[in-house]
Write a structure and sequence with these properties.
Blueprint: E1 5-8, H1 13-24, E2 29-30, H2 47-54, E3 59-62, H3 71-92, E4 95-101, H4 125-142, E5 148-153, E6 155-157, H5 166-180, E7 184-186, E8 193-194, E9 196-198, H6 199-215, E10 227-230, E11 236-237, H7 238-249, E12 254-256, H8 263-267, H9 276-280, H10 289-298
Helix pairs in contact: 1-6, 2-3, 3-4, 5-7, 7-10
Amino acid sequence: MTGPVVVLGAGGFLGRHVVAELRGAGLAVRVPGLHAAGRLDLTGLDRAAWDDLLRGSSGVINAAGRTTGSEAELEAANVQLLSAALAAAGRAGAALVTFSSAAEYGRTEDGHAAHETDEARPLAPYGHSKLRGTQALQRAVQQGQVRAAALRLTNPLGEGAGESTLPGRAARELRQATRLGLESVRFGPLGARRDFVDARDAARVALHLLGQLRAEEPQNPQTLPDVINVGSGEARPVRDLVTGLAAQLGYHGELLEDAPGSPRSGDVPYQRADLTRLHASGFRARYSFGESLRALLHGAAPD
């Protein structure tokens, strides 16, 4: 690649891993908004500002977005921002990959691996907003405006996971329980099955697919699929996450499951991604589930 890769959302959980992967590969990175005047609000950029940001770049990786907020806030961060980035990438002749979400699928049958061609039926405002962003990307690709791909990400694990997520919260509480010698830690029901993927592998996918998009002949239609699942392809009980963290910490107390549960666990009891498209691109994961848990613990700051 020539020219820097623009990373949107570089200060977030996924964005930090993307920046580390790019720099580890010896690539120049352009991070908007991290300057003395404060962080830039990407949702407020006009066309000229977007063109400035992407000028001379070799590609764009969008790790920006919101998981919570009002419908207007989700629309601005997950749809409008992406639409503006797609339009700017098209004008700049830059390829773009964005992290979308497996929440777009909604509820899937037990044992079913969600495929990119399955009907998307999100259950919550977040999933609906991510789906609208993906659909905007698909329209732009189909109309030949830009080369782009949406990475439908399952549940990323790794250093820096926020405490608003079960993995981040579990790492913090188990570390604290180990330090204080607590006899038990309470969780909600942990029987839901989830497809966990290392955040470092998610970053590697973004770089891998950006390179493939850039290698395509610009005068020909895009051959890389515009939506690609990113996950492990395995559905694990969430309990494996908690017991695995406890084992790595050497915590031998009781792990209770009598706290109120997450509504999402009841609505989506099973999740697994079909990785046919991802594997066809030549990508293979590098990190094991255990390595993901170690990284997660490394990023869980002690009290």
